[in-house]
Amino acid sequence: MDESLAADEAPDGAAVFPLIPPELGVHPLLLAALHAYVFLEGSEEAVLNGAVAEEAMHYLVTYLQRLKGAELKRVREDLETLASFAKSEKWPKQQIRFLQEFLTENGIE
Questions:
Q1: CA distance 75 to 104
Q2: Cβ–Cβ < 8 Å for 79, 95
């Protein structure tokens, strides 16, 4: 993910996922994981140590790969909701694709 997701308050080089309104009903833990993922994956070396970020990403993805059954179904539905929201808000295509491909790209299916 690139730094174009950075919020106004974020330092230069920090990748930040946009704030998602509670009305969407997306599980807060998924949103927290996505925010952490985008920050770790997309932030520049000046913002955080690459080796440390890579290790943290490894654990984050490993934990998400444990999702099964109803929990995984909920995450799939929430990601579809987020992708639809992103389209309606006219987010850049790469950000929509990130949401659509998140599970597959991280071996979570």
A1: 12
A2: no
Cα 64 from Cα 33, distance rounded (Å): 9
Query: What is each CA distance from 57 to 8, 12, 82, in whole angstroms?
Result: 24, 21, 21
DSSP codes of every residue in 39-88: HHHH--TTTS-HHHHHHHHHHHHHHHTT--HHHHHHHHHHHHHHHHHHHH
Helices and strands (H and E) in the chain: how many: 4, 0
Structure tokens at 104: 């597959």
Residue 29, number of CB atoms within 10 A of its CB? 11
Task: Dump pLDDT digits (tens) for 7-37.
Answer: 456 678 889 899 999 999 999 999 999 999 9
d(C-alpha 83, C-alpha 77), whole Å: 10
Q: What global pTM score does this model have?
A: 0.85
CB count, 10 Å around CB of 72? 16
- Provide the residue ranges of all domains of the chain, joining segments of one domain with +: 3-105
